[in-house]
Amino acid sequence: MLEKLNQIQGAALEALDSVADEAALEAWRVTHLGRSSALMEVFSGLGGLSREQRPAVGQKANQVKNALEAALAERSGTLRAASLKRSLEGERLDVTLPGRRIPMGRLHPDSQTMRELYRIFGEMGFQIFRSHEVESDEYNYQLLNFPVGHPARDMQDTYFVEAEGRGDNPIVLRTHTSPGQIHAMRHFVAGNPENPPPVRIVLPGVCYRYEQITNRHETQFEQIEGLAVGPGITFGDLKGTLADFARRMFGQETRTRFRASYFPFTEPSAEFDVECFLCAGKGCTVCKGSGWLEIGGCGMVHPVVLQNGGYDPQRYTGFAFGLGPQRMTMLRHRIEDIRYFYQNDLRFLEQF
């Protein structure tokens, strides 16, 4: 039996020398190491040998098996190296060709505009203050001078998260960033209730409204709110702040204007427009021939809102404004459909 194993090993190694490709190597493996090979038959017949013969034959069979497997691995490596060499020799390699460009990630156009806004307002002394996207009706409406049943609530169709059993205070997805005004004022008041410090913050974030999706309206959109509270703040401070912002954002020659409007949480209230930066006020399709672009709303903080935030309206005044970053991005780049911002289409995103 030991002699038979030597013969099996010799024949297998001799046959391996003539193997020239991967297919022939696989056929060799099946023939000499497969289940039906002569070597495997020796393993199967170990049970029929005497006690004296079995250890020696089993040890020898394992040695032959290990030798054949090592020879198989060596031959496989040799064939792969030869195949790679033939492939390289058969192909023309032009070393003067430029390398393949690696696709680079970039900031979303929303993020680019928001970072520019952060930079500008940071230079103007405003801090960033973030608040919750899920709010109670009390913070989203009531503390902002939208009492239950107020008709101005119809201006902002609301997503309700939890309403059953909560009476007049359901849980909602915030319809604007203005609830952050109350959170911020109460945060500053908590540190010094008798003499709360002035406030100068911007509140960025995502808002939600249950609206019909069109090229101009989305159910989810970015907003950035500004709030300043302190002794003696006037509407003139508001106008100066927004005019300075417009010059920093759109150019030093940018003109601004304010139009009377209405918001429950500010009094007086106004819409804030900037001179069209695409046509320099001459009139174009983007500004609809008016020469002006509406950027957002603003006004003096209503005394009721100041009081709900913990500030005495007899001692403090303040202003607030809300801007639409996505609207600014659309105007600057002549983007005609707001839905592009959330479709993740690389053809759109790679333009920025």
Just give the CATH class of the largest domain: Alpha Beta
The SSE order reads HHHHHEEHEEHEEHEEEHEHH
CATH superfamily of the largest domain: Bira Bifunctional Protein, Domain 2
Q: What is the 3D form?
A: elongated
The percentage of residues in β strands lies in: 15-25%
Major beta-sheet overview: 7 strands, mixed
By secondary-structure content and strand pairing, the structural class works out as alpha+beta
Helical residue percent?
Answer: 40-55%
Distance between the termini: 78 Å
How many beta-strand elements? Answer: 10
Q: How many separate structural domains?
A: 2
- CATH architectural category of the largest domain: 2-Layer Sandwich
Q: DSSP helix count?
A: 11
Average pLDDT, rounded to a whole number, is 87
What does the model show?
The protein has 352 residues and is of the alpha+beta class. It has 2 domains: 2-90; 109-349, 2-Layer Sandwich (BirA Bifunctional Protein, domain 2), CATH 3.30.930. Helices cover 40% and strands 19% of the residues. The chain contains 11 helices and 10 strands. It has helices at residues 2-17, 22-33, 38-44, 53-90, 109-123, 137-140, 179-191, 235-250, 303-309, 325-333, 346-349, and strands spanning 127-128, 134-136, 160-162, 171-173, 199-208, 220-230, 256-263, 266-275, 292-301, 317-323. The strands form 2 sheets. A 7-stranded mixed beta sheet has the order 1-5-6-10-9-8-7. α2 packs antiparallel against α4, α5 crosses α10 (325-333) and α7 (179-191) packs across α9 (303-309). The radius of gyration is 38 Å and the shape is elongated. The N and C termini lie far apart (78 Å).
